[in-house]
Amino acid sequence: MTTIRMAGVDDASLILAFIRELAEYERARDAVKLTEAELVRDGFPTAGAERYYECVIAEEEGEPPHSPTTGEPGPRREAAGMALFFPIYSTWRGRAMHLEDLFVRPRFRGLGIGKALLTKVAALAVERGCVLLYWHVLDWNEPAIEFYKTLGAEALEDWTRMRVGDDALRALASLDNVTV
Amino acid sequence: MTTIRMAGVDDASLILAFIRELAEYERARDAVKLTEAELVRDGFPTAGAERYYECVIAEEEGEPPHSPTTGEPGPRREAAGMALFFPIYSTWRGRAMHLEDLFVRPRFRGLGIGKALLTKVAALAVERGCVLLYWHVLDWNEPAIEFYKTLGAEALEDWTRMRVGDDALRALASLDNVTV
Fold first, then answer.
1. N or C of chain A: less Cβ packing under 10 Å?
2. Cβ–Cβ < 8 Å for A18, A41
3. Count of alpha carbons within 13 Å of B174, Cβ hemisphere only?
């Protein structure tokens, strides 16, 4: 049985493990520069600080280990996957949610856990008054795109995502043509 | 002279006017369903509520009206454009910023106001420890894409953005295969 729960600060190392496993699947293992300390700071901030993301964890409950003499132990739970998300905003429609990562460990695939995670994020979005849920998918990942379309998602083909980062971002930030 | 300032709650109707003018330019005038009340709630929330976006406003300062007898009035400022943005998160790199709308009214174009707005958002991003700044641009808007590339931005060609909304989102949210 699959259980979905909100991640807590104690899950930061598990979240980082999931992020690294997903990056490996996306053929970008070395791209993960994020640290556990940053995940703690940005997902579980101190009062007054900005929260950058939230996360839900899927656990799969196995059979309890057989132990006829000592009584029945609690069920064994294994971390199977996660969904990491944050609020965004559409100036056409208002509140929206962005799903940044959806990951299920290979040995837990085919059990409906990905769908359960996506459903949970959709439920949280609806609960918070969001009318749209977005995510990105790699063009070559056709199984994922087809899976998402069966859930009512559409591909937004006519937009290009732009990015400026690191040195170029700092250079842009320091242009001295602005009076503020 | 261009002045950039943070938007306040009194700017909500101006922000909505900008959003509508931008939608018209993007050939999607009827797509704006957002109301001024929602912009107030989501950008200038009461204590404890989540903030979904922030906004900076560009004002262009004209010559003061000629008034030799009554002394010099303050300079006349006209609202020229805006940038609307919010924090997002990269699980590879950490804190990031997303620029949702960048708009300059047609009669103020060619004065560097778009660049000044983008620079201000980049500066806020750097100030907050963000290493990346993202935005979307319509494929057919080649002048904008070329402008952004001169600022050090790159186009992310190999990702597709997916969206599920409204009825499909509610249906997804209510799938009863989840134990939470």
1. N
2. no
3. 6
How many C-beta atoms lie closer than 10 Å to residue A63's C-beta?
A: 7
Give CA–CA dist B92/B132, Å, rounded.
11
Tens digit of each residue's pLDDT (9 = 90 or more) over B37-83: 999 999 999 988 999 999 999 999 876 555 555 556 666 899 999 99
Q: What is the pTM of this model?
A: 0.90
CA B22 to chain centre: 10
Tell me which chain A residues have a C-beta less than 8 angstroms from the C-beta of B118: 172
Cβ atoms of B128 and B95 closer than 8 Å: yes
The predicted complex's ipTM stands at 0.90
Q: Over range B129-152, report the average pLDDT.
A: 91
Q: Does A55 touch chain B (CB under 8 A)?
A: no
A172–chain B Cβ distance below 8 A for any pair: yes
Q: To the nearest whole angstrom, how far is the Cα of A66 from the nearest Cα of chain B?
A: 25
B chain contacts of residue A87, beta-carbon cutoff 8 Å: 50, 52, 86
In chain B, which residue's Cα lies nearest the Cα of A43? B89
Do B164 and A171 count as a contact with CB atoms less than 8 A apart?
no
